[in-house]
Structures are given as structure tokens and as C-alpha cells.
Amino acid sequence: VFSAANVPQAPEDPLFGLMRAYRQDPFAKKVDLGIGAYRDDHAKPWILPVVRKADEILRSDPELNHEYLPIAGLPQYTGAAQKLILGADSPAIHDGRVATFQTISGTGAVHLGALFLAKFHPLRPAPTVYLSDPTWANHNQIFTNVGLQIAKYPYFSAQTKGLDIDGLLSTLLAAPAGSIIVLHACAHNPTGVDPTHDQWKQIATVIRERGHFPFFDCAYQGFASGDLARDAWAIRYFVSQGFETCVAQSFAKNFGLYGERAGAFHWISAPDAAATSQVTTGNIASQLAILQRSEISNPPAYGSRIASIVLNDPQLFAEWEEDLRTMSGRIAEMRLGLRQRLEARILADSSNIINGSQANWAHITSQIGMFSFTGLSESQVKVLREKWHIYMTKNGRISMAGINSHNIDYVAEAIDSVIR
Ligand code: PLP
């Protein structure tokens, strides 16, 4: 019999513990580098100007009501989300090979895809899901919660602070045929390291050779580089190569709609004879609808309405692209600024560097998106927190969004002091 008394206490999510400690710290110059959301130059949340506009348009609509959305979501939204991720001229969309469901942001999209694969994958047991090492911590529990086995593929090289492409390829080659491979479409979380186009092609070749299934998680389109097409390149490449694939898409970061939970799950069938792939896609959509119904019934309306207004209006869309460039541009500036400050300090006093590999900070600018894997050790992270009141996860990941023109000198001084 079930007894609530037997339920053990779960460990605290390390990120939430970090956030709590930061909030409780009374030190005036404290810095939050754990934050997973964009902050402006004053460390404040930023409502995108185009989102403010869309909000006004939405509120002035006399037809607006609070009815349920369809199970698959707002059609103008899911249609625009498809075009955004695959490209407006995508043959997959044209051929009717894409099934799209509005989800509870990116998390809900990953979950819906995981649940679908757990339930409908023809192999029993279902194939193992390969996650990058490291990855967004939530991937582990989302896939295991639906009963799938998980394994790791090497991703980050501690030596180069870049991609371990050899380790990645050899592990995918050795993985059982037909494995599920989760790929971060851009701005890899937590490392900020993305494959080059050439490396993506090598990854695609191995996935093809082994009959693996590529599962894309795209939480940072446009936020990473400021260019929506560039950040979707890997997904579009795989689709152009005729892979059957799926994509979890989030509008949390690129619209700053974190709490509104606007996302989408796309299933892209392989390009068989057009009629066959349309039937396949329709069947998949019908099953996704049942899963969606049992999980959330209908997705939330507000965030999707905001995104839909912007995505479907060329003028607002252009303004959104400008906002994306503002966010990604500020982050790129902070990357460069931090690197320059650290290198200048190291150059000015090269007498007592403790760890030679920490003399090079080029990875700060070659990594992309919200996060950077600094290479700081757990003990250095601890000193940064206890002595300098600078908070980051213990793997040395920093959120570039937490750095601004007011604290960048302080952060550089602190990091410089702990690497000596
Ligand atoms: N996937 C990755 C890799 C992420 O970094 C995030 C957010 O941090 C998500 C998915 C999902 O975020 P959300 O559910 O807020 O869209």
C-alpha cells in the first residue's frame, strides 16, 4: 500500500538553491551569473519593445476572449512557428510533412516528443536516448520520467574548451543502431559551444550511417547570433538531407516570454512519396493530439497570441529582429569585454598564474548564446561565491546575461584573483 510517509525528500534543484542563496545575500555588489534569463545593462528583466506593442494590440482587440485554444494550439501561431524554424520556403512544409503542436514552452515540447517516442517507437525496449555531456540538466529527468533509458555522448573538451568532435562522433558510431540523439540546435546549454557547419555535416553522416534518430532542442533561435536563419541552420540542414526528425522549440528566450510558456513541438516526416508522408504525418498528429489532451488538454493562450501577432506581421517581425540583435549584441559585447579585461590583467602580471590553461580566455568569445563554460574549477567557484559574492553553478558555467557595464570590471577582477 502507498504510504506518504515512505516518500523521501528530493534533493533541491541546484540552480534554485543558487538563486535562493543569491537573493538572501545582502552584499551590495553581489552578482548573479546563474540566471537563465536575459537581463539588461542594469541587471533588470527586459520586456522586448515589440512584445509591448503586441500586448497593446492584443488588449485593444474587442473580439478577445478566454475560450480554449484548439488542442494543437493557435493555428496562426503553429503555422508561423513552423516557418520560423524550418524556413518559409521549406519543402517539408510545402509537402505537408510537418506536424506541429503548441506546447508548454520548450520544456513541454521536449516532454511531448519524449512521451511520443516512449509510446510509439516500434522497438521494445525503446532505444536509448543519447544526451550531450554535459547538457541542460532537465533533459535527464524529462527522458527518464517517460521511461526511456539515457546515455551520454562526449561534447565538451576541457582541454580546448571547445567541442570534442572526435569523442562525439566515435560514441555515436558505437551507439546501437537506431538510437535517439538529442542535439542542441544552437547555443548549447551549458557550454555555449556549437559545432561548425562542417562538424554538423559529420554528425549527420554518422547519424545517417547508424540509422539514429536526431531530436533537436532549440531554445535560443535568434537569441544566439541575432540571426534567426543562422541559428536554425543545423535543423534546416538535417531536414534538407531527408532525415525524419523532431524539434522542440521555445519562445522563452527569443521573445522574453519566459513565464508565458510559449513553445512548439514539430515532427518532420521523411520525404517519401508526398501522399505517403502526408498520411504518416497525419497519423502522428492524431496520436500527438491524444497525448496532448491527456497532459494539458489545451495550451495556454497569452504567450502564443503575442508571438503570433509579431510573427505574422512583417513590420513587427522586423522590429523583433532588431530586439534580437539588441540582446545578442549586448551579450557578445560582454563576452568581448570580459575576455579583454581578463587578458589585459594576465598580461599586466604574468608572474603568478597558478594554472597555465587559465591564461587563455579566447573561449569566452568563441562560445555563443547565454552561457559560457569558463573552465573555472569547483573550488574557484566557491571562492568567487564566498569572498566575492559572485554566484554561478559549480561546473563553472556563467550566464553572460548577468554581466553588464556596471559589474564587468568587478567580475574580471574577481576571476583574475581566483585563477592566480
Ligand atoms: N532546452 C534547453 C537546452 C534550454 O536551455 C531551455 C531553457 O533553459 C529549454 C530547453 C526550455 O526552456 P523553456 O521551457 O523555458 O522554454
From TrEMBL:
Superkingdom of source: Eukaryota
Keyword Transferase recorded: yes
Cofactors named for this entry: pyridoxal 5'-phosphate
GO CC annotation terms, alphabetical: cytosol
Record flagged with keyword Amino-acid biosynthesis: no
Keywords: Aminotransferase, Pyridoxal phosphate, Transferase
Top-level class of the enzyme under EC nomenclature: transferase
InterPro entries: Aminotransferase_I/II_large (IPR004839), Asp_trans (IPR000796), NHTrfase_class1_PyrdxlP-BS (IPR004838), PyrdxlP-dep_Trfase (IPR015424), PyrdxlP-dep_Trfase_major (IPR015421), PyrdxlP-dep_Trfase_small (IPR015422)
GO terms under biological process: aspartate biosynthetic process
Residues of the Aminotransferase class I/classII large domain: 29-415
EC number: 2.6.1.1
Reactions catalysed: L-aspartate + 2-oxoglutarate = oxaloacetate + L-glutamate
An example molecular function term from Gene Ontology annotations: L-aspartate:2-oxoglutarate aminotransferase activity
Assembly, per entry: Homodimer.
NCBIfam families: PRK09257.1 (NF006719)
Other notes: In eukaryotes there are cytoplasmic, mitochondrial and chloroplastic isozymes.
Family, similarity comment: Belongs to the class-I pyridoxal-phosphate-dependent aminotransferase family.
Protein name: Aspartate aminotransferase
Species of the source: Talaromyces atroroseus
